[in-house]
Amino acid sequence: MAQHGHRRVASSQKALMLELKGLQDEPVEGFKITLVDESDLYNWEVAIFGPPNTHYEGGYFKARIKFPIDYPYSPPAFRFLTKMWHPNIYENGDVCISILHPPVDDPQSGELPSERWNPTQNVRTILLSVISLLNEPNTSSPANVDASVMYRKWRDSKGKDREYAEIIRKQVLATKADSERDGVKVPTTLAEYCIRTRAPPADEGSTLFYDDYYDDELEDDEEEDEDCCYDEDDSGTEDS
């Protein structure tokens, strides 16, 4: 039994070392990764940058990813350390997203097994899903009911009900002190945010951008940076 456990540890450590090296050699737009402790491959610290032209622009959001011993066969846990007001983030910072749920058949959840974790997922796909989720909340099974109700009011009023947007902007401003303390320059334009050498993976057609009716003052930046990574469909989600 002990030998089997050692094999699992060796296998998960190898997978994590390869992923960490890959993410540091070829960074992905929107986040940076470090180990919480150099001697522990199972705990990663992530800094997520808020995508430009969204409520989260300029934000610096810290999170932890904790990996299980049998990774990648079981999903890691993802928790924000930064205070987040979002329909799919619990009060304690835990993120509720299908990709992080074990692939068991649970009809009660409303999730298909295919939407859940499987060993072909990795840190890159998790982080891109979380970044996408920030601006495209799933309100069908919210982790934070109050945030979900407020988000729907904002969405249904076409942005006229500003309460949801205002809370997030305040939280974004509050992260400034963290980024300054860590000496990190947060990208605020699409050109800075995107790493053009990599094509982004397809993400079920969700988009990180505002619809046209959101903040007018952001439109200038959009025009300057039209050739960037997420711009194939920045018209929002009118058809959803």
From TrEMBL:
**Would I find ATP-binding among this entry's keywords?**
yes
Q: Name the InterPro entries on file.
A: Ub_conjugating_enzyme, UBC, UBQ-conjugating_AS, UBQ-conjugating_enzyme/RWD
Q: Does the keyword Transferase apply?
A: yes
EC number(s) stated in the UniProt entry for this protein: 2.3.2.23
Question: Pathway, per UniProt?
Answer: Protein modification; protein ubiquitination
- Here the segments flagged for biased composition (Acidic residues) are 212-240
Write out the entry's keywords from A to Z.
Answer: ATP-binding, Nucleotide-binding, Phosphoprotein, Transferase, Ubl conjugation pathway
**Region span, Disordered:** 201-240
Catalytic residues (positions): 96
Top-level division of the source organism's lineage: Eukaryota
> Which N-terminal stretch is annotated as signal sequence?
none
Q: Which reaction does it catalyse?
A: S-ubiquitinyl-[E1 ubiquitin-activating enzyme]-L-cysteine + [E2 ubiquitin-conjugating enzyme]-L-cysteine = [E1 ubiquitin-activating enzyme]-L-cysteine + S-ubiquitinyl-[E2 ubiquitin-conjugating enzyme]-L-cysteine
**Residue ranges annotated for the UBC core domain, each copy included:** 11-177
Molecular function terms, GO-annotated: ATP binding; ubiquitin conjugating enzyme activity
Family in the record: Belongs to the ubiquitin-conjugating enzyme family.
What protein is this chain from?
Answer: E2 ubiquitin-conjugating enzyme
Name the source organism: Carassius auratus (Goldfish)
